[in-house]
Structures
1.
Amino acid sequence: MEDWQMFDRTRLEEIADEEEAIFKAILADPARFASIEKIMNDSDFQLLEDDSIIDEKAVMQQQGFPAWNRTEYMAFVRSSSMFGRTQLDRIQIAIGSSKTLADVTVFASNFWGKR
């Protein structure tokens, strides 16, 4: 989770801290650990029990830009500086074929909207 991916980092870290506390409590109780050890590797296993927090986390993980890497971000910043923030077609060309004009448009809207 990098800054340029524009996740709600503070809230996701709060949720991760809560998950870590739950996990530590499970490890401290051998009987509880034994009862869930078999299901911990299931893809749908959740440490959190509150469905609203599980849903919140899932939504927040989709709101960022996980598909953007550092190279693309740096190309976005450089080309925005070079061409101006409204020249999205030129910015997209500078980033390369890994991002479409639609990708750049959505990213730029979020990037400049947070400034």
Note: The chain has six helices and no strands.
2.
Amino acid sequence: MANEKKKSGSAVPFVVGAAIAGAAVGVAAGVLLAPQSGEETRKEIVNKGKEILEKGETKGKEILKNGQELAQKGEEMAKGKIKEVAKTVSDKMSEK
């Protein structure tokens, strides 16, 4: 054990340096290979955001409508069951 070499410090500096270098290469590649200007990219992001918002609103309205329909069906079913139970109770009371 005495002959074992101690590993020097940590690999953290190397990993951090590699991450910074990778990020720099990525940014440079993105700038050099961008198919459109920043202004066009921003417009596209805004348009996609509006599109997503519109789809979300449409889907939300659809879900609300379906929920209302289900609630109405549930109410109708509950009223029907209440009538059935009331009739059964009435019939049982008449038997006595």
Note: The chain has a mean pLDDT of 80.
3.
Amino acid sequence: MAISAFISGKPVLAGRVDELKEQINDYNQQIAELEKEIAEYQKQIDNAGKESKTLNSQILQLETRIKKFKADITLTGKQISAADILLEEIMMGIETKEKEIIKLNNYWRKSSEIWMK
């Protein structure tokens, strides 16, 4: 058998070469498919990275908005407190003016009583 393979070695060798070429083509096809698959995964990874950045940026934006709203609430509270103090100051000024008016009324009444006598 070895002698027949040796004598007719060219057809056996040529058959094996064809077989190897077919295997190489199969592997190349599989490699191309895997490269496509890998490229698709890379796209998904890139998109996931972009989405992650987008999500992180949205989270940061929401956190910043929350901080702004908290600051707005604090500002409004301070403005209300300042308005309360201003209102209290105005009320005290009104009370003082009322007392002055009462004193002046009493003074004019006493003065008019003195002049009337």
Note: Residues 2-90 form one domain.
4.
Amino acid sequence: MHPCQIVVKEQLEGFAGMLHEVEHNVKHPGMSLRDHFAALAMQGLIIQGIRPLDEVVRQAYEYASAMVAANIAKITQEEDV
């Protein structure tokens, strides 16, 4: 493992309302995959002129949660094969 790399564990609620524990190997301590996705989503929301800032953040994390849940579903499907 890279010296700056840490494992972040978080519980995420999937589309079916089930909690999944997810591990992310993060090279930047303190930033989860969900945070990264939210930061990317924020760029698009800001360009669209979404205001106020708390609405930008809420929507960004909504998109990020959906992306992480889709990632979990994909991984689960691949494990079942």
Note: The radius of gyration is 14 Å.
